[in-house]
Design brief:
273 residues; alpha/beta; Rossmann fold; 4-stranded antiparallel β-sheet; 32% helix; globular
């Protein structure tokens, strides 16, 4: 296990992997002011994520995982501390990052293709210039034959594939995912995990993934960051030294079971079943 260091430089750095440092947080805290008082959601969070890494955050409900993701995305300001993207402060959402939510958020009156192209319309981009890219991504996520279908004609897993295609069409450097497969059945979830790994690994996308599922986190990730109960702090960071590409059979590996146990042990320092 290796702790993510607290890097002090404002300039883009190189991580231990030799790859470019993409995301850093320094002394990050978030306090919400409510009518009945203040609530500290996050406290002194220091993380570092390198280019192309897949990093999952796990922890008990209410520990601030989603809040941290929202701060990294620029959707929510931190109370104290900083977040850096390529060495620069994040103060607002960046075109370098794509966000995939817990639900697909599709417009029911638009087809798959038109839902994928919606951000281009909203941002005033050239839709026709982007259409070939959108169609390529729709094919890559296995929806080529459904480009003219409407959301009500798709299963839950297929709707999430549309949401994934919508994000990937705009070629984000960093993909932020907030429990995107949590509502899916186990078999569909496994299929989506395999699809996500295949696409992000081939494209070299840096992924930050929030989940409650320890097995999912270990299966997908290069690193798993374990959070404490609120106020959320980093309990520990576990390097996942399993070979890639990974398949469902990877879960039979005794090393996989050992990593699951290590994550549970980190959670168990603060959470008692």
């Amino acid at each position: 296990m290796s702790q993510v260091p607290n890097i002090g430089s404002e300039a883009p750095a190189t991580g231990a992997s030799g790859r470019r440092r993409v995301i850093e947080t320094h002394g990050l805290s978030k306090i919400f002011t409510l009518s009945e008082g203040s609530v500290t959601a996050l406290r002194d969070v220091n993380i570092a994520i390198d280019e192309g890494e897949f990093v999952s955050f796990v922890g008990p409900s209410g520990c601030g995982k989603s809040t941290l993701l929202n701060i990294i995305s620029g959707l929510l300001p931190a109370t104290t501390g900083t977040v850096l993207l390529d060495g620069e402060d994040i103060t607002e959402p960046s075109h370098k990052m794509g966000f995939m939510f817990q639900t697909p958020v599709l417009l029911p009156w638009r087809t798959v293709e038109k839902n994928v192209l919606l951000p281009a319309e909203v941002q005033g981009l050239n839709v026709e210039a982007l259409r070939p890219k959108a169609l390529d991504v729709i094919e890559a996520v296995g929806l080529k034959d459904f480009r003219h279908a409407y959301p009500k004609q798709l299963s839950g897993g297929m709707q999430q594939r549309v949401a994934l295609a919508r994000v990937l069409t705009y070629e984000p450097e960093v993909l932020l995912m907030d429990e995107p497969f949590g509502a899916l059945d186990e078999f569909t979830r496994e299929a989506m995990n395999l699809e996500l790994m295949r696409i992000t690994q081939s494209a070299g996308i840096t992924c930050i993934f929030v989940t409650h599922n320890i097995t999912e986190a270990v299966f997908l990730s290069d690193k798993v960051v374990v959070m404490t109960p609120r106020p959320g702090e980093v309990s520990g960071v576990l390097d996942i030294d399993l070979p890639r590409p990974r398949e469902i059979g990877t879960m039979k590996d005794p090393a996989f079971a050992d990593l699951i146990f290590e994550v549970r042990s980190l959670l168990g320092r603060h959470v008692h079943a």
